[in-house]
Amino acid sequence: MAHLTEGAEGLRSVPALLARNATQYGNSPAYREKEYGIWQSWTWAETAKEVEELALGLLNLGVNEGDFIAIIGRNRPYLYWSMVAAQSVGAIPVPLYQDAVAEEMEYVLAHCGARFAIVSDQEQVDKVIEIQDDLHQFEHMIYLDPRGLRKYDHTRLHQFSHVQEQGRAAREEFIKELDARRSKLGYDDTCVMLYTSGTTGKPKGVVLSNRNIIETAKASSEFDHLKVDDEVLAYLPMAWVGDFIFSIGQAYWSGFCVNCPESPDTMMTDLREIAPSYYFAPPRVFETQLTQIMIRMEDSGTFKKKVFDYFMEHARKVGPAILDGHDVSAMDRLKYKLGEVMVYGPLKNALGFSNVRVGYTAGEAIGPEIFDFYRALGINLKQLYGQTEASVFITQQPDGEVRSDTVGVPSPGVEIRISDTGEVFYRSPGVFVEYYKNAESTADTKDAEGWVATGDAGFIEESTGHLRIIDRAKDVGAMANGAMFAPKYVENKLKFYPNILEAVVFGAGCDRCCAFINIDLAAVGNWAERNNIAYASYQELAGHKQVLDTIQAHIEEVNASIAQDPMLSGCQVHRFLVLHKELDADDGELTRTRKVRRKIIGEKFADLVNALYDGSPSIYTETEVTYEDGRKGKIKATLEIRDAKVVPATPQKLAAE
């Protein structure tokens, strides 16, 4: 596999890309942030100045080459600058999930041995202070927002703007040292360390080099023709590899502008104002947006609802074909243009998708109905398949070859092979260096030839070369009768319904599948209000008879759909219950990236799983929960268990595959 030893076009580090952009795109916008309702903007030239002043301030604080610097907070230009400033002085940025509790942060900070942290506000300062006595190597913390911090002990606590001021003041003293450190940054030096979400155990520190990030950013940017006048909204966790590759890797390679919303609460408003041309969201975001659309349409008048339904039916029929440039009759095109004026255009504008040229979803499989809905509107939504260990990109869908049931062809420079057991392996210039301080896991994941085991089961279509992912390899199993068990496939179909927020399907080694359901409080609550149904809590609404009837109807529709697939027809849901609480990352049931921790849920709710399989009509349970302030409590509930109608089908045996 060809590697560019001197770096793509001689650019061997992110700081080198920044220097190029400051010269080449100096007056183009690099960052925007909405603050107090007003968009602030920084050009590439201004960004380079901000980063350099912070880097000088870090040298003044005593940052050494090879030091780890934790970055904690929501998406803000200052925190992106912090990552590049850390790289500029030869240190390694380690972004953490801002909603992680102190205990989770303690593990990461201790594991990497961070001497410094740059955080957003008082909340994050308090979390680090809570654990810093146990972090023997920890020395200094820098914060952005001074509110509430005036009376804190500032011996080892520094305001971001003051560090920059000290950097400016000490420029003559440190500029030669900074230039020396920047110029010696190599292509195989560490660019960033990102921790996995820890679905099955403790998070692992994934070491990614400048080569990994720059080669991947170059290849993926060229694949989708990203350019300097593109716009992206940076709202996903900075600790997630996707945000790093989009908001640092591709942004610095292509020179496009990174826009940071004012807060999570204003994200949708800010999205509409920016109307990005390049957009990424995990399936959950698209599911939530679709739920909100459906809620609004249910609340609209009869005429408006009929117009929406009429044109959406036409859009599903011809929209994707028009988007992909296929032949469509003149009458259908005319009708679609009318739909664009009446429905699709206003809807895309309300979603903030009016200018989307390239949209991606990844992280987990998206329900085909959800995926097709957005493409029917004329939004060029595509799927990619990736991992932290790959610097994101393993496969992408080329324009004109987009389907809901595949994740595309190998990204440029990526090789893929399928093992005898059906597991997907890949290698590419983006393959990670190692898991930090974990040689055993590194060897288990990456072999001597650079092939990485994804842990996913899939196959490559002979006719198209597209990769199809079935499920996590560890989750795919056989049922008692030998039929294939692929829970994610069923869960994604269930989550298409706005009323269903999350689903967890069980059935490996069993004679039938059963499911836990989480209702979507926004969607079901809206229905309750429209129908004058009073409820005092999530738990009360989740146990309402009409809610259970509705969920049962959804499950039975999904069963009828699954029965059409001979390979997976055995995965129909026979029995289900609606959980009395939402699955929560703070309770360990989801990862910080909102992925289901199936094994932990199965163990934690073992009494409920047993009741699903032993025929019980109901089950009393007590569950420990974590409140927002960290306190623990218990909730008690008696849950009704229902049977769902299944469709007779002849399941295809796993062995036959």
From TrEMBL:
Gene3D superfamilies: N-terminal domain of ligase-like (3.40.50.12780)
GO MF annotations in UniProt: long-chain fatty acid-CoA ligase activity
UniProt signal peptide: none
Residues covered by the AMP-dependent synthetase/ligase domain: 19-436
Superkingdom as given in the UniProt entry: Bacteria
Pfam family, any one: AMP-binding_C_3
Keywords of the record: Fatty acid metabolism, Ligase, Lipid metabolism
Record carries keyword Lipid metabolism: yes
GO CC terms, sorted: membrane
InterPro entries in the cross-refs: AMP-binding_CS, AMP-dep_synth/lig_dom, ANL_N_sf
Entry protein name: Long-chain acyl-CoA synthetase
Organism (species): Marivita hallyeonensis
